[in-house]
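ok here's Homoserine O-acetyltransferase, seq below lol
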Amino acid sequence: MPIRIPDALPATAILEKENIFVMTEHRAMHQDIRPLRVLILNLMPTKIVTETQLMRRLSNTPLQVEIDLLRTATHASAHVSANHLESFYKTFDDVKDYRYDGMIITGAPVEKFDYEDVDYWDEYVTILDWAVDHVHSIYHICWAAQAALYHLYGVPKYLTDKKIFGVFPQRLLKSSSPLVRGFNDISYSPQSRHATCRYEDIVEHQELEVIAYSDEIGPTIVKSTNSKHFFVFGHPEYDRDTLKLEYDRDVAAGKPIEIPVNYYPDDDPEQRPVVTWRAEGQLIYSNWLNYYVYQTTPYDLTKI
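and the structure came out like this:
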């Protein structure tokens, strides 16, 4: 089944070239089913890349999904045109009177800052508090996962001695969770961050459970026991070259950056990166959308 997005969105042409079924708004309006409504709060500076990656994952399910894109009003993005934001993105004032089946909040390159020092922190908190009452299930990525754990449960973050950068093995601590149904016992997850949360701080809260853990970098997938919140510390939606582009950018800028772990064959940046996370990267989005959104959300969204 298709993903329903605006016809002119750049992701539309990219996904169609990949033979992903993208339904036009006109056709979707004439189907006698209710699509799932998913709101994406995109905090990444590379908005078009991130929105395309997420829509690629959400489109590969048997469900019709209607996407709204949300941006912060208190932070001006310098890496995307104002026309793109004006054409395809809403602000909180535009959506605050609506309800959604699901919501995805992306990461952001602000891990080194104290949460309260992030210039859009107050707006982020307002949106998250609103989402608790207006969204059936919320999926938090990377920085957003850490920020939500802090705001909702008081779980602190810790800066790491060096950047967590590469593709890391993770093992399932709760393989019975539908979120990781179909996962191998050991799977791989792309990571790119300067901070982490600790297992012992998370499990102090009975409302939280650690689903997957890496012996090298700690918790990687956490959820609330009521399945309202999902905290994914990595980036299962990443493309083959996402880490490469980040590495090349930092090398060109003269920044200290190590070769991404478990990414290039023989750790040779001249070779093509090997994708080891694609299957589980798709499964986690499909499972979240199916088991925790579609199968449990009320048909009447006003009942959320």
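fwiw The domain at 3-158+195-238+277-303 is CATH 3.40.50.880 (Rossmann fold). kinda neat tbh
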